[in-house]
Amino acid sequence: MTDQRKYKRFELRLPLELVNGASYAGAKTCETENLSSGGVLFQCGDEYAVGDAIEYRITLPSREGERSPVQLLCRGKVIRRSEGRQIAATLERYEFVRSK
Q: Mean per-residue pLDDT for 18-23?
């Protein structure tokens, strides 16, 4: 059986923060399991149900000498949940930002 996924997945363990509305205060920190141009799979809590809109930041690895890491601010929807804490979400919109 061949893998018929629409987007190639990359097994990347990167810091992911769930953003609460427009505020970054109280963001919950998680970790990605894999990432593609269409979405992300990560382990986290039970705050979201399938169909919920979600906003998250992924911190990309920085090169030595960079002042601050680059983050990918993403918006999407929860498309799948496992019985555990695993959540799959789409990546519908994104922008690159520098953390402060």
A: 66
